[in-house]
Amino acid sequence: VKNSDVGTQKEVQIIQEQLIGREQEVSRLNSLKEDQQDKIHQLNCRIDRLTQQEDEYRQRAESFQKKLQSLETCLRQREERLEEEATKLANHVEEVTHMRQETFRLNTENNKLESLHQTEQQRSQWYEGQVQGLRESRENAEAKVQELVTQLQMSRPLQRMPPTGCDLSDDDDDENYRKEIKKLKADKQVLESKSSDLQNKVMQLEIHIEDLSSRLGLEKNHKEDLERELRKTKETLNTLRRGLNETTHEHSQLQDALDRCKELEAEAKFKEAAIATLKSKLEEINDQKLEMKQEIMLFKEERLSFDLLKHEKEMVEKMHKNTEEQLQELRKRLSRDFIPKSNLEHIHKDFESKYQLELSTRLSELNHLIEEQNKQHETRRKIKESRELDLKNEMSRMSDEIIRLRARLSVYDEQDDTWQTRYERLMDLYHKEQHGAGANKYQRITKKSSTENQLGFNLQEIEAHLKTPLATSTLLGQLSPPSSLQIPVKGPSNTSDNDTYHYTHQDALDRTLNKYLKDEKMFIPKYSTTETSHPEENISSYLSKFENLQHATSLYDSLRQNGPVSLDKSCEDYMNVLKKKYGF
Questions:
Q1: Distance, CA of 336 to CA of 346 (rounded, Å)
Q2: pLDDT tens digits for range 524-563
Q3: What pLDDT, on a 0 to 100 scale, did the predictor assign at position 495?
Q4: What residue ranges do the domains of the chain occupy?
Q5: Residue 261 contacts residue 75 (beta carbons within 8 Å)
Q6: DSSP states of 354-422 as a string?
Q7: Local structure of 495: helix, strand or coil
Q8: What is the pLDDT of residue 493?
Q9: In angstroms, how far apart are the furthest CA atoms of the chain?
Q10: Which of these, 508, 503, 457, 504, lies nearest to 480 by C-alpha position?
């Protein structure tokens, strides 16, 4: 008994030492837990700060992107304005050149008209001098005639004197006067004719002068109109000069705007560099986040291990309580009565078996927990890999976006070349589409013609086939159709789903009249409706079906009344069926 008491006391001391060691481990684990909680709190604060920085960087990146978009829109507007101003300048230059040409033409016409006016004035002055000379000559002639008339009136009157030898001088004087009078009359007539001619010429000259004066008036009016047009052209030239000055001023403003655009592009490049630095910082922050997440995972694993140890500690405390209770019971029992050595050994074995069972259960639980931890670690590893892939994809997407933005900037610089290349590419595509459309149309036409040729057959081939000895060698044997009746199984490719298109099988054509006579039933073939695009053809096919049915019923009645028919009659009936079937 003393030996058993000593053994139990040693076991109790060992258990107490184990409990003290476990308590020390628990205190150490509690301190580690507190340290880990402090670290977790610090890491959470750091993560919050990093998330805030990431949000700030993201907002800054979005603001930079918005600014870039606004700058791109401003650049587009400036380019559109530059194009409009360039077109306006070209139009102004064309108008100025046109007005200069018009003014030069009008000046040349004005000079021509002035020269013509001067020549007409000179001609009118010459005609007036000629008219004045003719008038003076006319007045001189009239004065001479008046003088002669006065001389004749002042001379003595002519008297009829007898012919004597004393008045010969007077007769001579009279004859001379008469001759002079005749000459004067002739001169008068000549002068009158000349005066009439001169009057006619004067009238013509007056008419011509009136025409010239009217023409001069018209030319003066035209000259006034030309002067007005000149004034207008000068005013338009002044306005165009003002417009040119304004356009030059606007051109200078546009040049300033272009300089500003270049400055904005430089700012955009600087901002792109800032964005790149921010992205590098974001990558560093993401790496730090990943490291912190890994540390958090390690802390969580340590926490789980701490929880396991805590659970083990609780289990050990429970076991300690149970052992203390058992010891108290043992002490009570020892104090109460005597326990033999065999019982003590048996109790010792029971204790050993019990503790071994408990240890095995604890070990199994620990193994189960370790397996769960391994599974959790595997899931965390997979989640980590998926997140890394997502981050890599995000970084590749951002890099693609940066490359696309740079490509767009380069496209804006090389816009003239791209328009030419785009025009050529579109023309190539257009020619290819035209060639492809022509090829498809040709294929459709050839396919349609081939299907029509496949479905062609004639009545003469059917009659020749029926007249051959092979077709009628066996009485009412199988009548195989000719080669032209071998209709394809598949329909043509251009049939739609709504069309009732089908073909009869070859066996339906190989039915014999012997079967009609044996079964006393008339075979009604399934007539094939060919593909039609008009409803009238479908109606005609249905009417042919109805006629075939009527013919079948009449043939069945005749068979029942008259008995079996001959081979020629059956061949004729079969020919009629085929004719009605295929619409001959």
A1: 19
A2: 444 444 444 444 444 455 445 445 555 555 555 555 555 5
A3: 42
A4: 2-153+177-322, 341-412, 460-490+500-582
A5: yes
A6: HHHHHHHHHHHHHHHHHHHHHHHHHHHHHHHHHHHHHHHHHHHHHHHHHHHHHHHHHHHHTHHHHHHHH
A7: coil
A8: 45
A9: 243
A10: 508
Q: Which amino acid type is present at position 116? A: L
The single residue listed with the structure tokens 């109805």 is 546
Average confidence (pLDDT) over 370-386:
88
CA nearest 243: which of 94, 83, 78?
A: 94
Cβ atoms of 247 and 88 within 8 Å: the answer is yes
For position 554, what pLDDT does the model report?
58
Amino acid identity of residue 54, one-letter, is E
CA distance 233 to 106: 10
SS3 of residue 507 by DSSP: helix
**Mean pLDDT, rounded, for 267-286:** 78
Q: Which two tokens stand for residue 292?
A: 């912190």
d(CA 233, CA 104): 11
Amino acid at 541: S
Decide: 127 and 209 in contact? Cβ < 8 Å: yes
Contact 481, 462 (CB under 8 A): yes
What is the rounded CA–CA span in Å between residue 466 and residue 482? 9
Could you tell me which residues come within 8 angstroms of residue 53 by beta carbon, excluding any fewer than 6 positions away? 285
Q: Rounded to an integer, what distance in angstroms lies between the CA atom of residue 56 and that of residue 34?
A: 33
- Residue 25, amino acid: E
pLDDT digits 0-9 by tens, 114-148: 787 787 778 778 877 777 777 787 787 778 777 77
Residue 231: C-alpha distances to residues 77, 458, 555 (Å): 39, 92, 109
Q: For the whole model, what pTM was predicted?
A: 0.25
Name residues whose C-beta falls within 8 Å of residue 312's C-beta, 6 or more positions apart in sequence. 362
Pick from 142, 123, 122, 124: which is nearest to 134 by CA?
142
Residue carrying the six token digits 């628990």: 26
Place of tokens 């018009």: 102
Residue that wins the pLDDT comparison between 329 and 491: 329
Give pLDDT tens digits for 211-234.
766 766 676 676 677 677 767 767
Q: Is pLDDT of 1 > 80?
A: no
**Rounded Cα distance, 112 and 107, in Å:** 9
Using the structure block, give the residue that is written with the tokens 């009746």: 485
C-alpha distance from residue 9 to each of 5, 16, 346 (Å): 6, 10, 17
Is-contact 239 95, C-beta < 8 A? Answer: no
Pull the structure tokens for residue 531: 């593909």
